[in-house]
Specification:
The chain is mainly β and about 200 residues long. The chain has one domain (about 5-185): M1 Pyruvate Kinase, Domain 3. About 15% of the residues lie in helices and about 35% in strands. It is built from three helices and 15 strands. The strands form four sheets. Strands 2-9-8-12-11-10-14 form a seven-stranded mixed β-barrel. It is globular. The two termini are about 15 Å apart.
């Protein structure tokens, strides 16, 4: 039995764009954004480096490190599933810090690292990996749902394995709502430590 998968290609659509241009990760809808080698110009997560946090327990909190999360990418399909699990009518992707919302990319959150998203302007975003859900995003959602004090922690469970991806800018350019996304998934080889 082979553990190899060859290169794959698919096409999706960018249906929403968001910019976090305030003092935190919450983002607002925009029609277009500009990418350069440090991320989305004007975004909260812009920069070549960032400080480590709870997701990097191998570093002392606040350690300067490479910024691999220029862009937060979610999908309409997975957002709808999270909203259903939370029993809310819809989920504002900006409340959980989205930059891109896609449509038509199956199982977006399972897209492997190294995958490239190509945009018509020539911009390319390289996927770093899965963006695990956290209670901070859950609290942001809870803040706009009066009487639902279960969402802060409920979001973590509801979004498990469907929270989306983070990526970094491989090639600058302008991105617009409605852009086609050409996805290139590199060949994969399952890596297993001997005996496991």
């Amino acid at each position: 039995m082979s553990n190899s998968i060859g290169a794959q290609k698919l096409v999706g659509e960018l249906t929403q764009l968001f910019l976090a241009d305030g003092n935190d990760f919450v983002s607002r809808p925009v029609d277009s954004i500009e990418l350069d080698f440090e991320g989305i110009i004007g975004d909260y997560h812009y920069g070549a480096t960032r400080k480590s946090g709870g997701r990097e327990p191998w570093y002392k909190r606040g350690t300067q490190m490479r910024n691999e999360r220029h862009v937060s990418i979610l999908s309409e399909e997975e957002l709808a599933g999270i909203a259903d699990a939370l029993d809310i009518s819809g989920l504002d992707a900006g409340r959980i810090g989205a930059n891109f919302v896609t449509k038509g990319i199956p199982h977006l959150s399972r897209i492997p690292p190294r995958t490239q998203f190509f945009f018509p302007s020539g911009a390319v975003v390289r996927i770093d990996g899965y963006n695990a859900p956290c209670k901070i995003s859950g609290k942001s959602l809870q803040d706009v749902h009066d009487g639902r004090d279960d969402i802060e922690f409920g979001f973590v469970q509801a979004a498990k394995e469907t929270r989306g991806l983070v990526g970094w800018v491989e090639r600058p350019g302008k991105i617009n709502v409605g852009d086609e996304i050409k996805v290139r998934i590199w060949p994969q080889e399952l890596y297993v430590v001997d005996g496991h």
